[in-house]
Amino acid sequence: MLIQDEESAKAWLTDTLGVSRETMALLERLNAFVVAEAEHQNLVSASTLAHMWQRHIVDSAQLLRFADPRVDEHWIDLGSGAGFPGLVIALIAPCQVTLVESRGLRIAYLERAIAHLGLGDRVQVAGVALERVPTVAADYISARAFAPLPRLLEGAARFSTENTRWLLPKGRNARTELESAPSAWQSMFHVEQSLTDADAAILVGTGSVPSSNPPRSVLQRPMRKHRSRS
Ligand SMILES: C[S@@+](CC[C@H](N)C(=O)[O-])C[C@H]1O[C@@H](n2cnc3c(N)ncnc32)[C@H](O)[C@@H]1O
């Protein structure tokens, strides 16, 4: 099944995912907030503003086909930008959510969006580059249009445990990116078809990503000390 228009997108949320009327109203509130903010900064591609439900809201919510986060679980969304998928997940699921975003304007927007949507008690912005986010164990890690797979997994490896669920919408290159990855990563992930784009796919996996390098923050600290001493 492919969702190709706004009405089908809303129907999928209510009929298949079981989203309540109250949550649909909050998703509409997010929709309007993104569209208004798009007049001030480049948050999503302008051509998608008329198709927000299909291109962004359901494109994000479809990750919940592969996840059922509980109240006490922690979801980390890398490179949240306009809040996709992180804010949509936070509106539909009851878990704790951290939105990692490094650009100042987007950090400010995300903080306003969290307040506007009444999510302040369980959603936070880590407003720094991923490399500088303190390490915590994540139950779920998502990243849409964030970085090529090797950089994404290397950067996020330290947040993963053997139970971490990875949900990585990868567009048209999902299969190729996975096939070019080290075999340890290939065995962790499989490819799921996107519901919103016939050519796009999602990499879904579970487990602790073995890092082939120490996290960058660990590499950089001794190098900086060394330079300042010499
Ligand atoms: C192409 S946008 C995608 C935004 C959103 N996930 C979506 O799909 O609409 C990538 C986002 O990642 C952020 N970003 C890039 N590198 C980052 C890093 N190292 N740490 C945190 N955020 C980063 C950018 O500022 C940008 O907002």
Automatic annotation (TrEMBL):
Domain of life: Bacteria
Region ranges (Disordered): 206-230
Keyword field contains rRNA processing: yes
InterPro entries in alphabetical order: rRNA_ssu_MeTfrase_G (IPR003682), SAM-dependent_MTases_sf (IPR029063)
Cellular localisation: Cytoplasm
Catalytically driven reaction(s): guanosine(527) in 16S rRNA + S-adenosyl-L-methionine = N(7)-methylguanosine(527) in 16S rRNA + S-adenosyl-L-homocysteine
Keywords of the record: Cytoplasm, Methyltransferase, rRNA processing, S-adenosyl-L-methionine, Transferase
Main location, first listed in the record: cytoplasm
EC class: transferase
EC number: 2.1.1.170
Signal peptide: none
Binding site for S-adenosyl-L-methionine: 79, 84, 144
Similarity-based family: Belongs to the methyltransferase superfamily. RNA methyltransferase RsmG family.
PANTHER family reported in the protein's UniProt record: S-ADENOSYL-L-METHIONINE-DEPENDENT METHYLTRANSFERASES SUPERFAMILY PROTEIN
Function: Specifically methylates the N7 position of guanine in position 527 of 16S rRNA.
Protein's recorded name: Ribosomal RNA small subunit methyltransferase G
Species in which this protein is naturally found: Blastomonas fulva
Name of the gene this protein is made from: rsmG
